[in-house]
Design brief:
Elements: E1 25-28, H1 33-45, E2 50-53, E3 75-77, E4 83-84, H2 86-96, E5 103-104, H3 112-136, H4 143-168, E6 176-177, H5 178-192, H6 202-212, H7 215-218
Parallel strand pairs: 1-2, 5-6
Antiparallel strand pairs: 1-3, 3-4
Helix pairs in contact: 1-2, 1-5, 3-4, 3-5, 4-6, 5-6
């Protein structure tokens, strides 16, 4: 098993120091699991930021999404320019952190079970968004929605069986990692949005509850922005 050094992270050889005066902002929603991934990373890394809420997810102006032309969130505003996407944002938050703890990134998951777990979690997060948006726009039934739901159920069944093993394959001296953060955000979101109950998945429910006790998780609980 590969082992990450204590300073493991993006551009670990030349971490960039950032002036505390350089304000940054996370553009997203308190109800978004992708946004919550970045907020948990910021809390774990002790990086201060302004939180900018996207008021209308159906907007078609990139400015409403922090300048992201794909009209997606989250976005990280920085003096150097915006960063699009949760994982890229998490890497930049690490670079801006004075702590720079060892983090298990997706590329550190160098065995099939662990790598597949990360892929399935990210796919499940996107699938859940598609299901929610489909229901919101009146497309809650039909072949496409049925396939999306089958995909989500299949991913959760695999994760219920294999997630604990996959988590154990992370670098042992990590402080935390993308797999456990994204898995937690997915699982907690499924019940928050009432997409699926976790009762049929006792192992996943235990993992959710375990990570949910961390201060970073408690401080970033899901809610609907007004």
């Amino acid at each position: 098993m590969s082992q990450a050094p204590e300073s493991s992270g993006p551009s670990a050889a030349t971490p960039r120091a950032t002036s505390p005066a350089a304000a940054i902002g996370i553009v997203g929603r308190s109800s978004s699991h992708f946004t919550r991934v970045t907020r948990i990373f910021a809390a774990e890394l002790r990086v201060d930021y302004d939180f900018e809420v996207v008021p209308d997810l159906m907007a078609t102006d990139a400015a409403a999404f922090g300048g992201n032309p794909a009209l997606r969130l989250p976005v990280l505003r920085t003096p150097d320019g915006p960063w699009f996407g949760a994982i890229s944002i998490c890497r930049e938050l690490w670079r801006r952190s004075a702590q720079r703890p060892a983090v298990a990134w997706p590329e550190d998951l160098d065995r099939p079970f662990a790598a597949n777990a990360q892929e399935l979690v990210l796919q499940a997060m996107s699938t859940e968004v598609a299901l929610i948006m489909g229901a919101a726009t009146g497309a809650g039934a039909g072949q496409r929605q049925a396939k999306l739901r089958a995909s989500l159920l299949g991913s959760l069944a695999w994760l219920e069986e294999h997630a604990t093993r996959a988590l154990a394959m992370q670098p042992p001296r990590r402080a935390f990692g993308t797999l456990e953060v994204t898995l937690y955000c997915l699982l907690d979101h499924l019940e928050f949005r009432e997409v699926l109950p976790l009762a049929p998945y006792p192992r996943l429910r235990g993992l959710r509850d375990g990570f949910g006790a961390r201060p970073s998780a408690v401080a970033t609980g899901y809610r609907f922005d007004r």
